[in-house]
Amino acid sequence: MPLPPAPVRRNVRLALGCLLFAAGLFGTVHAARAAVAQRLYHGAKHGFFRDTPREVPPVVDYRDPGAGVEPARFAEDVAELSRRARRAAELYPHNYYFPAFAARAALIQARQAGSRAELDDAVLAALYFSREAAALNPYDAEARYVRAEALAADGQVTEALDLWRPIVEREFWNGANHDEYARLLLLEGSRRSLELAVREKPLVEDPALRRRLERLGKSLEKRRK
User: Fold this and answer.
1) Which residues lie closer than 8 Å to 160 by C-beta, 6 or more apart?
2) What are phi and psi of 141, to 5 degrees?
3) Is the full-model pTM beyond 0.85?
4) Which among 40, 89, 127, 144 counts the fewest CB atoms within 10 Å?
5) How far apart are CA 65 and CA 143, in angstroms?
């Protein structure tokens, strides 16, 4: 079988070269975005590099926000935490850790909001990023948690409970799941929900929550008499 004419072969090689160049460029840009996002995420979660070449502890501990931090400094640090987390999620949305952390940062902002507008913006951000995280990995504990918390922060406590009940049923022996379930029931606040929350007392892990449920149980018992 004769070879195609030289001009055809040249055009084929040119087309293949262009495809390879485009693929390489796409891969480079993709890798660069992922690297920058990872750097932002790492800085937000594990510490900012401000006044020292060495890594410093997190300026905001997202598990215990505000602990031992001056209010003015805390507000500044939360804003920076949220900015970095959101930027990481926008640069590389395929990693569910990024939007999950951005949602948690937004929830911290919501709890510390100084105005209704700030609260609304933070809750909307938490709803958006938690939805993204849950869509990427609905079985990740962090993604599920921030989704339920974002719904609750938006006043959708019933929807948060609907999301969490199957998790408790599927992973019954995980005490953290019962902690969140009891908190959501307390937040919902109806008599039925309060009674269900008290039933969770033997299964919760948080000692403070267990004491709260114990006091609530005694209060409900007195009302029945």
Assistant:
1) 148, 149, 151, 152, 184
2) -60, -40
3) no
4) 127
5) 19
